[in-house]
Queue: 3 jobs
Job 1
Amino acid sequence: MSDYVCEELIVEIFTRLPPKSLLRFRSLSKSLFNCISSPDFIRMHTFRSPKKVIFKHGNSLYNKDTEKFYTLFKEDELALCLERGYIGTTTTVPYPCSTSFRTVGSCNGTFCLKTNTKKGFSLWNPSIRRKLNAPDCPGACELHLGGTGFGFDRMSDDYKIVCLSLMRHITFVYAVKTGTWCEIASPRPEFDHVLYEAVSLNGVLHWEVHYFKYLHSYILTFDLSSHVFGMIPLPASTRHWLTTGVTTIQGCFALISYIRDVDDTCIRVWRDASWSVVFKLGTGQLPIDGALQPNNGDLLLDIYSKGLHVFNPKTQVPPRVININVASREMHFHQCIETLHLLDIGDTACEKNPL
């Protein structure tokens, strides 16, 4: 191919192709294999990959050990489904791990999974069916681990897992490239409860933490490159609202809050060193576990025990239910992209529908 098309144009074309095609093209020649597997190509491909939304499903609402599987949608396809109020799909793929697990976080199309029966973590890229098992966190059996987080350090071009210990006020950081855990001191003021798993944004993890029995609360931040902690104060009127979820909205860290006094739910974002209310949802006492905003401007809401809802910020009509055509209950969702990360690191995950 290089005899007819220059190498720069080949790279330009290939960075816009889906991972499934690129995996096949690696077998065409040694030069293509090296090109597609190179960190620079993977980085450029990740930057150009379109956004998608992945839904986690389960066969049962109350059985935690039921089989988990997922469905994947492009944002433009999802936007059309939200307008119709119906998501029709028959293609489901099982997760490559035990049925009892939770998602610690996601970044660059890679997910960090933690089983409920073991202390270890697994990194999983559904686009290329690659999974990497991380060693147990040091002292995980003896220490009470609080919050966990997962993100990508752009300075070192590396994934990192972070675990906060509440007993000794220390923090453990795992780097994928070295395959080792390191220990650093946790910040002060000390905290005695971590309410949520971290949200990763621009290489920084965000947790909501409390100390002195919920008398003081704030957002704890951790820079994955410098390993430096920071703090974002919560809005002054914390006594009148309860945080039900954390997420990213419009490229900013956001709190999903239930306002006790007015029986309403809103979303606050931290932008330009201040909090602002960007959405008032009018859901009453229904707790919202998660939210994301596809490219059509609507808000996709995961309302606990009530399923998937969509909210139109322009009309301000209360959120409406979205039906999903799968034999399950929708459990959670994440925004993701299809990438080649973990291509030459992890093992091929055992799934019923392999590539």
Job 2
Amino acid sequence: MPPLTYFVVESPDAVGREVYERIASDVLQDLDLIKVIDRLHIYVDPKVPIFVAAGLLRHMPREIRVSDFANINPGDAEIVLDIGDETYLAPLLRKLWARFGKENVDQPDRFTVVLPAGVVGEEELERLVVADPSETLYKDVIYALQYIAPEGFKVRRQYIKNGKFYYVASEDTLPGDIVETVVAPIFAKMGETL
């Protein structure tokens, strides 16, 4: 596994610790998350039972805006969007339909979208967010942690925001102060606060 800036698996069971190091490494490689996760600390104690994973992401993908994949050509009667990359065309159309109504959005061909002049300003249209890849990234990170956690640990809490994440799982009910008592100290070991 290419090295993360910080990667620790902590457990009172030495054999279990080694197994979870391999499992975590394999899952992160298989899901191609090594390039986006910067730091990861996992704590597993089968006697409690508890599984805690906390970490930081390397970088967050930026939001995709209309100006990233289309040229905006305002005219007197209409605004013509010349689509340079079709990847985000479907979400663009959904956003435009929701905001301006289907009757005001024309698509004469797959590389052109036409709006009536005056429904939106050019700068506002350029800044319109069409997709947020971080949402998919968040789901992938949580999925990976679910896969790494011991089978049967169905009681869980998860958090991912502003580049920080944690996932706590157990067979038993989790105490209300689990974040303060277990998760926060793990972040402290990485030199971070939650």
Job 3
Amino acid sequence: MGCCETQRNNTCCSTICGCEDEIHSTEKRKIVIDFMYLDLSICTRCQGTEDSLEEAIADVAKVLELTGAEVVVNKIHIDSKEKAIQYRFESSPTIRINGKDIQLEIKESLCESCGDLCGDEVACRVWVYKGKEYNVPPKAMIIDAILREIYSNNELSGNGKQSKEKEYEIPENLKRFFDSMGQKDV
């Protein structure tokens, strides 16, 4: 029986055997962060959300490392109705951690950037954190969501599936955005 088979407390019985790296590599918990957005070239809300997300991940990097969590960030440009349907996109921008939106309630307000982009009035996400509304999610809000996921006891949280999802229908706001973008291309 190898030294690691007799010890199950994440510490190796010997620093010589080399099995410590093996233990840590098999215990990595994957934290998948999906950042979905309509536009990063013009939209100030999407740009600000991307910046907050990157800063939040940098700020918790040491905690993530120490807890054995591996973060994978997927930046997903929702550039069509088909993609919106594929990703069950509700509002721009969106951050999901292991398949769960970090902001359960969708609140929106007029977004001049996206309106300028498509030539129509469009509302984008407003983030609510500790009773205040923000056009860009505060870094602390993202850090809270990441840490909740790391310390949750939900064994299914890492599979990216939500329980019993309701049938998805693309929101009117997004339909109008994509229709207006399509008319600009004609």
